[in-house]
Here is the input.
Amino acid sequence: MHTTLHLLADAPPQMLPARSLMAFTLASHIILVPLGVALPLITLIMHAYGLRRGSPTALLLARRWSAVMAVQFAIGVVTGTVLSFEFGLLWPGMMGRWGDVFGIGFGVEAWAFFLEAVLIAIYLYGWRRLPPRTHFLLALPLPAAALLGAFGILAANSWMNTPRGFTLDSAGNPTDVHIWKAVFTPMFGPQYWHFVVAMLVTAGYVVAGVYAAGWLRGRRDRYHRLGFTVPFTVAAVLTPVQFMLGDAIARAVFHKQPVKFAAMEIVWRTDTHVPEYLFGRLHPDGSISGGIRIPQLDSILAGFRADTKVTGLTSVPAQDRPTATQATIAHWAFDIMVGIGSVLVLLALWYGLVWLRRRRLPESKWFFRSAAGAGAASVVAVECGWITTEVGRQPWIVYQNMRVAEAVTATRSAALWTTFGLVAVVYVFVFGSFLVVLLKMRTRWRLADERHKEAGAVEQPETDTPYGPRSRVAAGGAPAAPEQGPPTGQGPPTGQGGP
Here is the structure.
């Protein structure tokens, strides 16, 4: 305890508000990231299905998802811009010394951001204005642009975890920068693919969860069935893949960042036959209270053998490792993430077994209740993954090269706390507006679908297809005779509800 208090006393007073502000804005922004990275691909999968099968229902879903994509992108612009300013304002020591080395990642992300904005605008404009296949082909680069943005951010973060691509001069400043090595660091591959698949899984479960909730409320038409099946299938197929990628990145941390691994697993002393603790709390004297102790499992998971040596926190001086509290936070976040991932694997297996045996969706209400909650659980897992990565690296902002205390701004803590309060108020307004817009869109779409049903039998074709002129019904006029589908061979849906 004395060591922990000593380290806290040595920290600059502005470090706590700077960390708190950065943590709040990152935790808020990351809620939007799965939809920003993965929704374009999921939308295009639905779009391709609609064109291939001639399904107006699938095309309608794709068009509506593209509108959600645009609104989410606009909100992400606000939160992402705040983060970009914070890097320079809160951590000038890091940006001033190391910006020339790892700044290329932020440059790539900025370029991808503008490219994605243009492609989203073209995609939205193309509905009803471009030939169907031309519209689809013009949208194909959109998922790649979203993944390119993730590439830039993950390149910068992985460099902070395993910095490479430079030499230090006599004053400790980086020189002879090798961009290729600075981008493709040892942790980049494991982090990037783990992140990308996590975004696809999370977005799939979030979107499917909306339609699972509608299914539980009795909206069991083709619209909800298709809106659930496509994104849930994407997520279910990738969930076991993500579990294996998670195991791979944990092993990469074991080899490349052994002290962070010790924090994640609350290992105090270097040893073999190390037990695994499910939860539990690490104390400053190295003792562990609470949790479930599984003998030798940590060594087995790390190296597939019980005699695998696992590096402990005491392998480095106290000032070069996370505190007991920080290690406990990283450990709990890691365990929650793994626990959620394990439950999602079971849910994916449930879905897959029923589909393979009966070629239909499960009928159990508990399945759809679980599916409705999977989206929120996935977001929690993403938050926990970020906490594990960032808290486990402490006290380093650039691993083994610069401490957080060396990088923090000299701005007075009172000013930082005031800024934190203002940012929190703005974010409440921004996210509240986002929610209001989504709810209004849902209400408008639901009313439009009800007018379509009043226009004719449920089995008749969609009267407001995403290609061709708007129908009188969709525009709010009197019911009209059903129109012909677009020139893509689209067949009739079986009725729609709200999203």
